[in-house]
User: Which sequence fits this backbone?
């Protein structure tokens, strides 16, 4: 009788989720394709096919339809849709969307649990890095010997453009995406993100943007590199339209993610978690989010104006109509340099956490670290024109921009010294996160020193547009940010999976990538100093040997990343069990069970001290 009553109660309990029970990533792609095709058909029916802008108008319809259709198919618009008809979500609906009791399949759906979104960002980062890495291997294969014809110049130009933007997108989310979602809310004592649905929307909007960007390769690609400078962008094929819409959609993703991060930290911290007690990783997340809210709209604006020039015959960047390419260059670089620090700051924040835990010491100077990151973000808004030293724009401003560029070394030096000071005379635990941390330190020194050369106008006049510049920013992105992102992955991997990342495979990956970086970009510095220009699919015999060495080094980096990927996949279910707090850390994410419960805390903690109080009595097992 009792079991019968329980069965009746169970069957009468309302099931949450509604339409979302039948939605996942596959229905998202199906919705995007169907709505994209329908928009394409409507455009052919209603637009004047004799117009010279017809193709661009069709692509505008198609890309808009793809994005909206993907949102509908994945379930991102279910909540607003139900609210509009007066049937807002019930508690059962909210629990379903949070993935309660859904196991693995919740990772393939529109899920509002910030921890699931963090794991989804790990996968998305791997996909973007993988696609960008494949294009990098194609580029280096073309350049392995002079006069090679692996691909022609136009295809090579497209590879350069899409590779560059894929890697930028991947590194923007490489730390802020996975760990800004998974650990930052727990670190500040919050049960969830401030806007859970927007959190999931940011992830799936990134997926939609990546789909548009990859489509560029299939529709004629681009011929002007990832900076898509005007007026060449106005003369490009329809690949430019897909590229522009990808950036606009990506900006929606970064905007909602940035607002969500800031609101979560500022309004949902637990009792006692004052700003002076926030873990530095949390500080890095909100500083990077605020900088992104400033910077990325410039990129969205410049691509929107490019689309208007192409579709609606405006002339923002067309000289014959009164426009100017200088407007495009300034708007692009107003985004282009702060974007470097949107990428770098979260990686540095993660490394502060790793340095303190693995050295068993408090952060050397907590406030100095935060001041360094904030100063870096502030100065990054004042240096954009150093990218235009050689263009002839506003030569009288060269001196001031050279000064602000050189000044940026000061906050950079501050947080670098804080990391070194934290490690100094510490009881250092040389586990896998620490190994990648030391790789970051080595590479970042080279990245910083070579950047000082390029900030000086006379030297920049000689090196601008050469492979020296390419080597410099790859030391920043690959040698520094990627190493920081991998260190963060090794550090928080046990919190996600309950298992260690394999030390042997991780160290093999490290040495392949580390040596590969030195070989690849060291040889590239030599090519640049000898005058080899960027973005050419062939070159003079003078550069033959350094390019061969560069390509071999690039293959080493790819091999190392494949070993790391194999370790991540294998250890997810077969790695050594780690327990909830393998590093004996003090910040809140390590003090909850592994995996963390749905709402993180049964009872919200009360904070009475900072997370870096490591005493000598703490002994590692």
Assistant:
């Amino acid at each position: 009788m009792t079991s019968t009553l329980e069965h009746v109660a169970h069957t009468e309990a309302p099931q949450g989720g509604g339409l979302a029970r039948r939605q996942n990533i596959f229905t998202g792609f199906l919705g995007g394709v169907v709505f994209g095709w329908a928009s394409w058909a409507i455009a052919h029916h209603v637009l004047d096919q004799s117009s010279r802008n017809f193709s661009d108008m069709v692509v505008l319809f198609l890309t808009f339809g793809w994005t909206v259709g993907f949102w509908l198919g994945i379930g991102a618009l279910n909540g607003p849709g139900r609210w509009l008809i007066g049937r807002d979500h019930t508690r059962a609906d909210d629990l379903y969307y949070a993935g309660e009791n859904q196991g693995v399949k919740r990772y393939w759906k529109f899920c509002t649990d910030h921890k699931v979104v963090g794991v989804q960002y790990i996968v998305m980062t791997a996909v973007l890095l993988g696609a960008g890495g494949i294009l990098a291997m194609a580029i280096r294969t073309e350049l392995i010997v002079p006069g090679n014809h692996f691909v022609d110049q136009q295809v090579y130009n497209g590879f350069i453009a899409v590779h560059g933007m894929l890697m930028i997108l991947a590194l923007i989310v490489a730390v802020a995406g996975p760990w800004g979602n998974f650990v930052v809310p727990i670190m500040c004592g919050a049960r969830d993100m401030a806007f859970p649905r927007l959190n999931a929307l940011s992830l799936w909007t990134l997926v939609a943007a990546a789909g548009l960007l990859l489509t560029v390769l299939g529709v004629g690609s681009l011929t002007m590199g990832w900076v898509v400078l005007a007026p060449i962008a106005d003369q490009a094929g329809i690949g430019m339209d897909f590229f522009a819409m990808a950036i606009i959609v990506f900006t929606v993703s970064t905007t909602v993610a940035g607002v969500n991060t800031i609101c979560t930290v500022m309004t949902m911290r637990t009792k006692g978690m004052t700003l002076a007690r926030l873990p530095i990783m949390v500080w890095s997340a909100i500083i990077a989010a605020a900088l992104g809210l400033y910077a990325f709209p410039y990129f969205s604006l410049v691509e929107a104006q490019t689309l208007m020039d192409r579709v609606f015959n405006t002339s923002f960047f067309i000289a014959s109509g009164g426009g100017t390419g200088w407007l495009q260059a300034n708007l692009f670089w107003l985004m282009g340099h702060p974007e470097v620090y949107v990428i770098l700051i979260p990686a540095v924040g993660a490394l502060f956490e790793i340095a303190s835990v693995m050295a068993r010491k408090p952060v050397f100077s907590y406030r100095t670290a935060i001041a360094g990151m904030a100063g870096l973000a502030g100065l990054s808004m004042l240096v954009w024109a150093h990218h235009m030293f050689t263009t002839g724009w506003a030569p009288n401003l060269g001196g001031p921009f050279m000064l602000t560029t050189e000044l940026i070394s000061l906050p950079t030096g501050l947080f670098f010294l804080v990391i070194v000071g934290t490690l100094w005379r510490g009881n250092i635990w040389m586990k896998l996160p620490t190994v990648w941390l030391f790789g970051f330190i080595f590479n970042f020194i080279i990245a910083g020193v070579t950047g000082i050369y390029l900030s000086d106008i006379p030297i920049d006049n000689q090196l601008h547009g050469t492979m020296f510049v390419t080597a410099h920013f790859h030391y920043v992105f690959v040698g520094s940010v990627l190493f920081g992102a991998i260190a963060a992955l090794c550090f928080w991997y046990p919190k996600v999976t309950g298992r260690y990342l394999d030390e042997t495979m991780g160290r093999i990956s490290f040495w392949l990538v580390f040596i590969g970086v030195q070989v690849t970009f060291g040889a590239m510095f030599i090519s640049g100093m000898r005058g080899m220009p960027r973005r050419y699919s062939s070159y003079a015999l003078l550069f033959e040997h350094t390019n061969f060495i560069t390509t071999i080094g690039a293959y080493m980096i790819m091999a190392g990343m494949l070993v790391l990927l194999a370790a991540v996949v294998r250890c997810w279910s077969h790695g050594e069990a780690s327990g909830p707090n393998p590093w004996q850390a003090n910040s809140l994410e390590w003090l909850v069970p592994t995996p963390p419960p749905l709402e993180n805390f049964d009872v919200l903690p009360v904070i009475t001290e900072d997370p870096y109080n490591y005493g000598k009595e703490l002994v590692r097992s």
